Prior knowledge:
The protein is an alpha+beta fold.
Amino acid sequence: MNKTPRAFLFSDIICLAFLLVFIFLLPVKLFKSPTSFVIEASNGNLLSAAIASDGQWRFPVADSVPVKFKDCIIAFEDKRFYSHFGVDFLAMSRAMRQNLKAKSVVSGGSTLTMQVIRLSRKQDRTIWQKLYEIILAFRLELRSSKDKIIGLYAANAPFGSNVVGLEAASWRYYGRNAKTLSWGEMATLAVLPNSPSLVHPGKNSNRLIKKRNNLLDRLASLKYIDQSTANLAKLEPIPGKPLPLPQNAPHLLNRFKAERALLEINSTRITSTLNEDVQLKVNSILKRYNNRYRANDINNISALILNAKTGNVVSYVGNIYQPENIELLSHVDMIKAPRSPGSTLKPLLYASMLNDGFILPHTLVPDVPTQIAGYSPQNYDLGYDGAIAADKALSRSLNIPAVKMLQQYKYERFYDRLKKLGIGTLNQPADHYGLSLILGGSEVTMWDLANTYMGMVRTLNHFNAYKGLYDPKDYKQATYYSKAQEDEKDYQRNSFLDHGAIWATFNAMEEVMRPGDEGLWEQFSSSQRVAWKTGTSFGFRDAWAVGLTPNYVVCVWVGNADGEGRPGLVGIEAAAPVLFDIFRLLPNGKWFETPKTKLKKLKVCKQSGYKAGDYCQDVVEEWVPVAGEKTVICPFHKLIHLDRTGTYRVTDLCETVTNMQHKSWFILPPAMEYYYKIKNSDYKALPPFMSGCENAGGNSVMELIYPKNNAIVYIPLELDGTRGKIILNAAHRNQRSKIYWHLDNEYFATTTNYHQIAVSPPPGKHTLTLVDESGERLVQVFTVLDKDNKHKN
Length: 793
């Protein structure tokens, strides 16, 4: 008696197991064919696509199928689709009667569900295969919704030639998104999968028109549309041969293909963050400039726009796109390519020195001929200012002040700062780059450069939102595809760069004269405020421009992908005009708020830009980064002692203290003074000492401008083959002074007023001694290389 319930229980378990196997035995993924890589704009429109690896245009399954296509395909293939469970026995019996009567296959009874199964299996259809398809169709209906089934059909149905799926067909035949198609266009596509090898655009046009018109009449009879709509739709032309798919972001598409696994994205389709309208306009701008630059054999150009508010990519143009011209190398994505940054890192050094208390915004820095361990930087204009405010040196992009600043800051410290800010191409030790790091001696990518500046913008933007704190995620790299935003914030008291240093840096970057505007742009209220910087690499190989506002960061690169340099390929002339044309596309907004709680009002010496000392006469109060308190007192204002007439300097050796005048005087070192007074007519040189009252040492009156102490120089041959000469150059505070020159303790010349002289010493180490009329001495050594060792450093 007890065995019967157990037997029933056992049989129930077996039946349940069979039922579960029946329901869930379908493969998790019905379709395993490769799909095309697809990039959509933020509005869902297609930007770029790449053909699938099997040579088919096959888009991934869409989230939704247009209602018109659902109506058309149901009316054409399976009018009882929403009422059956995978098999339409009425349609099947009708088809069997028609086929038996005609003694051939003239009608099919397959439902859309059965057709999905058949498309996924791709096997010869024997009677047993058809029976198996019926079982699988029933099982698919149990597992999936009707919308999902029709979505699988729309994505995998053949539409003729190598076009698979509704979306690919819509773009290939109409050049538009399927959601925008008319009834006539949608009806045309709906009839194609029925016999794609016989009827498709460009083949059997009359037959295709007839099938479409019959479907439109059926739609009217089934009340999907009225007859007048059907009649009007019949007048629409059918498409011709397939159209090429849009290629408006091909380099981002290739980037997505390379990074998909790393990003852990399963689909080969992404909806990007790109603004379609901006992307198309930037493409047009770059094409226009590229046509102009190619006359000078400058073949490549790229641009990147980041939205600083959202951290999203707005436009990504890795290069001009002309695959038919292989020699242009337009397939190379220059946004990812490591290139010399030229001067584009200078604002980062300026911000770092402000942040760490090395300088104030207007601190004077040296701009004199410089040689450091065989390295001789030059300004672009080959001139010298003697001394220049740090912010002006940045806005004018002067090289020598930048090198002097890096020498003070230490290149090892700056190297570490760049790595923390996100420059990922520094794959050599700091010593490999040395001081050339600030002049483009390293490599950067446009992606890293733009993201670093965006991190600074986001940090300053969030000053109020984060109540003066910092979030390291502000320096997180931009994203180019739509994804859920992270809400977690990790507020900290310190960051790589503080609000005050960033604010002062952006102010300095805003002062640059814009190309073509002759400095008058500020007079126009409609002009957009932009902080920006250009860069030109050694050998005119790369022209850069990077600009920023509170809302956007824009980066532009112009050059040749193969690294060939060209005359005239400089940032201000080639990249900056493109930058400002792009900014004209973007909406204006408010400028950065002043982060007053991260600034301190400090008394600053107006003439030197240093923290004011006791002897600074013209003092102003300025908002400076808080670390400015750590900077040194002005070293250039000193107290000097004059005779009672104020004409001569005196000491207590020749004048009583009661007869002296004590005055504050702005005194630059001799080499800086030598060039500074040329460009600053109001500079007052020190008065001479009264006769018999010369200073007995302790006062620097002479400085050798070239060569510097311990310098290594090479003397080249002249055009006629004779050995050339080096120009020795010295500065003396007293313009009327005489300097007696000695080389290796042997006198060889005397100079007055203008202290330059040409010599041709033999290879080896030499001692240069300068003596003035007062007996002041300056002794320095330098080494002359022979022709076989000219590259020694």
